[in-house]
Amino acid sequence: MSLVKKIVTWARIKSPWVLHFNTGACNACDIEIVASLTPRFDLERFGVLLKGTPRHADIILCSGPVTKQTKDRLKRVYDQMPEPKFVVAVGTCSCSGGVFHDCYNVESGIDAVIPVSAYIPGCPASPKAIIDGVVKLLQSLEESEK
Amino acid sequence: MRKVVIPIGPQHPALKEPESFSVTLSGERIMAFSARLGYNHRGIEKACEDRSYTQNVYLTERICGICSHAHSTAFVQAVEEIAGIKIPDRASYIRTIISELERIHSHLLWLGVAGHEIGFDTLLMYTWRDREIVMDILAQITGNRVNYGMNTIGGVRRDIDDEQKKNILKAMDKLEERTLYYITVATSERTVIERLSGVGVLPHKDAVRLGAVGPTGRASGVDRDTRRDDPYAAYDRIKFKVITDDHCDVYGRTLVRVGELMEAYKIIRQALKDMPEGPITVKAPRKIPAGEAVSRYEAPRGEDLHYVKSNGTEKPERVKVRAPTLANVQTVAKMLEDGQLADLPIVIAAIDPCFSCTDRMTIIKHAGSRDLGAMAWEDLRTHGINWYKNKGVDFSRLNEKLKKANKV
Amino acid sequence: MTTREEAAKTALIKKFGFLENLVRIQRERRIFIDDAGQDFERILDFASEDLGFSVLCAITGSDDGTRYEFIYHMARPKGDMLNIKIYTPRDGSRVKTITDKFPGAEIFERELTDLLGVKIDGLGEGNRYPLSDDWPKGEYPLRKDWVKKDKKPEGK
Questions:
Q1: Buried-most residue among A88, B3, B141, B241 (CB within 10 A)?
Q2: Chain C: nearest CA to A136, how far in angstroms?
Q3: Chains touching B (3+ CB pairs < 8 Å)
Q4: Structural domain total, chain B
Q5: Tell me: the pLDDT tens digits for B181-202?
Q6: ipTM of the complex, rounded to two decimals
Q7: pTM of the predicted model as reported, rounded to 2 decimal places
Q8: Closest-CA distance of chain A to residue B48, Å
């Protein structure tokens, strides 16, 4: 692996910037994502920083079952993210649609729209589960780059 | 002056909801505002017709993750009315206690979000830290931090034991002490008062005309609270104050919410004291006889209305949900009239928009010009914070002061 | 002693004789008018101006397979609700807007248009709610005969 790529990977793993995107969720997972960034759970100690724009994000944390209105925007946001990029489906709804899987305005899960790197189930996914999931993703990145 | 309309994209971090608002500007001044809602529309009402009543208790709970107990309670109340079921008293009290715990976590959440919007970030950290006290209690009593699964048709599914009672009372004392501190900050810190006063003004008559509910309405002097006016659960047996305010602005909305926090602690203490022994549920039939009912509930954001029509089968004929934010979003245009762009984030945040109750979006347009400039919510928020900094309203000092006083 | 609900019922029947068997008190604080018919507007005005039911909480539209039912949920400060029903045929359903007196009705009327295909007379241009811009025309999800395409049965 080239030196540049090694440095970039190291930077991603040491300090990933995440984007939070709600695709029509009930908010429970969204609040838990924000809670995981507060001092009690402190996702920031892993170097994870919440960023407001796709252009600076390494990881997109998605919540929600993907309503029809959010589908195109989700794709667009994903396309705007620079490589390498990773998608985390937070909560049962983004994994599979959850209780809304057969509702008429819903796609039933993030992976129907964009490729998913990690699935964190839960209704909602608790902050501990979110941290566990993100850390596992970072570890797998480290593994794959060895 | 050239008019500018700015689309605020449907992905912004602060509100954590996809939504679109359209704003027309003349310089910094807001000339017009409209909302295009629909991003969170999932099709729940239709889905309810395809699920049993019990399944719908869980589905309605997930309409909104912040007021989940509100929706599931409003739903079961309607079903219980149709079926002629009277739930045990103890269940009424337990529902009330969970309701108020939900109100507490919701209002503390809101305080943090509001702080974040205006650059008062230490407030976010501390209110959300305090909020964890409530989340722990809820997890203890119900098994989950959110989406409690407490309700069933005919009562509640879990009881509150003496150990949990003790813990709840301890938590109430702790939270009351913290909330008194926040009230002091809100009422005596000049920076807070300057930042929030005169912002997002909604005169009383407009609040009435446009149908504002909850703290948004009460901050404009609309003296309505479903808990007092159309009582449900155990509220008809509990003494509490309905908090109203006459500021008619974001400052007033803040005062109402912290006031409601203080009342919530009192209500929970009363409920724990008065809660009678006895069963927590009565048996309910699977098939609900044909009928209909309108159920109302005072969610943290305001009046939540559920209409249920049954047809004698295991599945409802029709379920209609009117969440509070749908009523309040129609007041935002009035609040932003003649306001400035710098105030947009806090004004929208101040109705405590639970867009998943409703659904939402944000769009900004530039008038007079063909180009649609896109401004992310984060940029709007930064714009607001800097605009006020230039006017001498700066939260850096207050952030430092709070950090020192609250060694986490 | 007459309750508030009974007083409202009496006043309604006094003014609109045909409502004799159509006003129903379901329980305390819940009154239903089971079919306001052609006099809906006048009944709504009377209820909101004379009887104090000045708050519009919501409008529920439903399809029962043979006709559309609309319930206008009105409330007054003491917590009583007056739920006024009217009916239209399923196809070509139209109702007159009430936004002139109740501006907050707009969002509920838009919802009726999107989900049931109801035409709202007198309601101007505005953002649709709640369906997306690319939702197929003529598809009204709340109709009883509307089924989601490629619907997966439970458990599969």
A1: A88
A2: 30
A3: A, C
A4: 1
A5: 999 988 899 999 999 999 999 9
A6: 0.95
A7: 0.92
A8: 10
